[in-house]
Design goal:
Shape: elongated
Helix content: 25-40%
Structural class: alpha/beta
Number of strands: 18
Largest sheet: 9 strands, mixed
Strand content: 25-35%
């Protein structure tokens, strides 16, 4: 069973600068567990089938106008249908005046009532984006995440393979570090992965023979970044002369992380190879492929081999013990 995550109402209030009208208890003790949002609408008429009480409820002009046209008895019934199911919280948008009867109803049913000056649609979009990130499925993997020419590159490999050293060289070449050693990966949409570093080791890099360094303090703020999408994976592995390595790059190899396909390549390590330059080239080549140009395919066509078709191949990047 996949792990479920939550975010406190206090963090939502702080991030979105919400005004507190009523709280039944400390906002730190109220947790939101779903990234879906609801506008009550038809629930106020009594149709509560499929209503998810875990969702934050958003009320704008339409909902408040509908409530205002009801008489007291109809309004009490609507609040019973809706607030009686104890939704996570209710937020009034556009800075609208909140009628006393709504405040009283929230107090009666102990439902948090909040307010924002934002218009309804922009607030909905911002809140959904925030909840998608906070509640996203996630996994921690051993590796280094760097941004190279705007591409998020996750470098993996055994301990001592040279991941951190490559990251330092990339920083000195103008690229940015997101995470070293442990990368927390979140699935923020069906086809998008975002990586960041655990807060307690953020910006720190371990270099064998030197020890722990703070990349932000040594190289400056321009050398680090908090988060980055993961566009490709590069696995560093010790050179094996018995293995046939791909020399054309015609096929599209990918790794699956949290069910998302990510372009992946394996790079054999030998003394003297400039890993930073290899990572830079791989990042630029990956960007070219996303824009529709495959150099290997173009070469095949120029040689008259127009019947060659690239194949998708899944590769195993993380070992069973690499669970973070």
């Amino acid at each position: 069973m996949s792990q479920k995550y939550s975010v406190s109402l206090a963090k939502i209030i702080d991030v979105h600068n919400l005004e507190v009208v009523y709280l039944p208890k400390n906002a730190e003790d109220i947790h939101v567990t779903t990234n879906e949002i609801n506008r009550p609408g038809i629930v106020l008429t009594g149709y509560t089938d499929f209503f998810d009480s875990r969702r934050i409820q958003i009320l704008g002009w339409t909902e408040l106008g509908f409530l205002q046209k009801m008489n007291d008895e109809e309004r009490d019934g609507a609040f019973g249908y809706w607030l009686g199911l104890h939704p996570a919280a209710a937020v009034i948008t556009r800075g609208l005046d909140i009628p006393d009867y709504l405040v009283s109803a929230c107090e009666k049913y102990e439902v948090p009532l909040l307010k924002t000056d934002e218009e309804t649609s922009p607030f909905l979009a911002a809140l959904i984006e925030f909840l998608n990130k906070e509640l996203a499925p996630r996994v921690t993997r051993h590796g280094v995440l760097v941004e190279v020419y705007g591409e998020g590159v996750l470098i993996t490999g055994d301990s001592g393979a040279g991941k951190s050293e490559a990251a330092i060289e990339l920083i000195k070449r103008g690229h940015r570090l997101i995470a070293d050693d442990a990368v927390e990966i979140r699935k923020i949409s069906n086809n998008t992965l975002q990586g960041n570093s655990p807060s307690n080791i953020r910006h720190f890099v371990e270099l064998r023979g030197i020890g722990i360094i703070d990349a932000r303090r040594i190289f400056g703020m321009g050398a680090v970044k908090l988060t980055e999408k993961i566009d490709m994976v590069i696995q560093l592995e010790e050179w094996d002369h018995t293995k046939a390595y791909d020399r054309l790059g015609l096929d599209n190899e990918y790794a699956k992380i949290l069910g998302v396909k990510v372009p992946a390549i394996r790079v054999p390590i030998t003394p003297g190879r400039n890993l930073a330059v290899i990572v830079e080239t791989a990042a630029m080549n990956n960007r070219q492929k996303k824009m529709g140009f495959n150099a290997a395919m173009d070469l095949m066509l120029s040689l008259g081999m127009d019947d060659v078709e690239p194949q998708d191949k899944e590769v195993e990047i993380f070992t069973e013990t690499d669970n973070g």
